[in-house]
């Protein structure tokens, strides 16, 4: 399937004001996090609640809950009370050892119906000291996760394409979608990267830096940039 035939746009926001901007500019999914604190850094639960109120069901809402740890469900207690469509923990520091994944499944069992846990893989898994993307993908398929997110852990000058090439990403996406898992692709992608990814057809591109003023993920959202992404995905 060619890029754009069904690919939607996820925009990460840090406040209800940004959520309103992203929605107006055409975002298909609003993701809440605190971009200045890392790839998967949570925003305060009050902020997430205010974003949900602003979005008011117009599109689905997801929230980043940090890097997974054994006490993650307790730590996220207030976030988990909220009517979120998707939640996600990164796997930085979670290594690929025999039996890995059991505790992730145990975490998933504790999440209320209606909120889906996203399987998150970092393309720069060596820098994140986490499980390689192809292993997270197998896990997501085997245990019927609804959504898989491919992102980068370290937000520096490198992006997704420094760690995986377009063919590898396409194969990952096709395999997952073939197994009934929807895929979001992120990792400091710029709009120009879509040319290299022309044969990749994820369910969402997930962006922050590329839709902020000056391409800086800690700056304000720029609605013109969001609209350009929407046009590019048409
Ligand atoms: O969920 C996706 C991330 O927020 C993407 O952020 P980024 O485009 O700055 O890498």
What this model shows, in words?
This protein is α/β, with parallel strands linked by helices. The protein has one domain: Copper homeostasis (CutC) domain (TIM Barrel, Alpha-Beta Barrel). The chain is 32% helix and 18% strand. It has helices at residues 16-25, 45-55, 72-75, 102-109, 125-128, 133-142, 166-178, 193-196, 223-232; strands at 8-13, 29-32, 61-67, 86-90, 116-122, 147-151, 182-185, 204-207. The longest helix has 13 residues, at 166-178. The mean pLDDT is 96. Bound molecules: glyceraldehyde-3-phosphate. Glyceraldehyde-3-phosphate (G3H) binds at residues 12, 31, 151, 155, 186-189, 206-210, 217.
Helix-strand blueprint:
Layout: E1 8-13, H1 16-25, E2 29-32, H2 45-55, E3 61-67, H3 72-75, E4 86-90, H4 102-109, E5 116-122, H5 125-128, H6 133-142, E6 147-151, H7 166-178, E7 182-185, H8 193-196, E8 204-207, H9 223-232
Parallel strand pairs: 1-2, 1-8, 2-3, 3-4, 4-5, 5-6, 6-7, 7-8
Helix pairs in contact: 1-2, 1-9
Residues 12, 31, 151, 155, 186-189, 206-210, 217 line the site of glyceraldehyde-3-phosphate.
GO molecular function: lyase activity
Keywords: Lyase, Schiff base
Function: Catalyzes the formation of 4-(hydroxymethyl)-2-furancarboxaldehyde phosphate (4-HFC-P) from two molecules of glyceraldehyde-3-P (GA-3-P).
């Amino acid at each position: 399937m060619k890029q754009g035939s069904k690919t939607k746009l996820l925009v990460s926001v840090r406040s209800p004001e940004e959520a309103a901007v992203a929605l107006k500019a055409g975002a298909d999914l609003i993701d809440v996090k605190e971009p200045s604190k890392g790839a998967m850094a949570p925003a305060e639960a009050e902020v997430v609640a205010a974003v949900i109120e602003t979005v008011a069901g117009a599109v689905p809402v997801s929230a980043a809950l940090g890097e997974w740890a054994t006490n993650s469900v307790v730590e996220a207690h207030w976030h988990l009370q909220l009517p979120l469509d998707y939640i996600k923990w990164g796997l930085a520091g979670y290594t690929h050892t025999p039996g890995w994944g059991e505790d992730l499944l145990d975490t998933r069992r504790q999440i209320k119906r209606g909120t889906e846990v996203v399987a998150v893989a970092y393309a720069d898994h060596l820098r994140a000291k986490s499980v390689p993307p192809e292993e997270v993908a197998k896990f997501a398929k085997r245990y019927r996760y609804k959504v898989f997110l491919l992102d980068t852990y370290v937000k520096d000058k490198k992006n997704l394409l420094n760690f995986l090439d377009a063919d590898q990403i396409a194969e990952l996406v096709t395999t997952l979608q073939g197994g009934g898992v929807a895929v979001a692709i992120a990792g400091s992608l710029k709009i120009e990267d879509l040319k290299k990814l022309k044969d990749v057809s994820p369910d969402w591109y997930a962006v922050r830096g590329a839709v902020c003023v000056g391409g800086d993920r800690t700056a304000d959202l720029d609605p013109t940039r969001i609209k350009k992404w929407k046009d590019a995905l048409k």
